[in-house]
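Tutorial, part two.
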Amino acid sequence: MKKSDEEFSREAKTQFDESVDQLDAATLSTLNQSRHRALAELHARPTQWLRWVPAAAMATVALLAVMVILPDPANNRTMPADITDMEILLGEDSIEMLEDLEFYEWIDMLEEENDVG
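Running the prediction step on this input gives:
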């Protein structure tokens, strides 16, 4: 049969109290000193983490500044500047002309020189 939670809790407390009553004075003193040290550390800890608050605040401000200053990459979807290469590949023109790209670049260069001069 299962015991109820209250009965179990009552029995556990009774057994614990009996085991504490059977401890000698040296063990009780050591436990008491350890308890006081733990409580002292517990009260001293808030000051340790408080020294990190300014650094965390500065890091947060820096992160927010970067997020505000830099453009959103999701909204910055621009097409590549040289779309003509893609047009050549997807176009219906013959791929054979790609073999002589240097020739076509030379022709473009000559046309640019003639326009300037």
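Helices lie at 5-21, 25-50, 53-69, 84-90, 101-116. In part three we will examine how such features are distributed along the chain.
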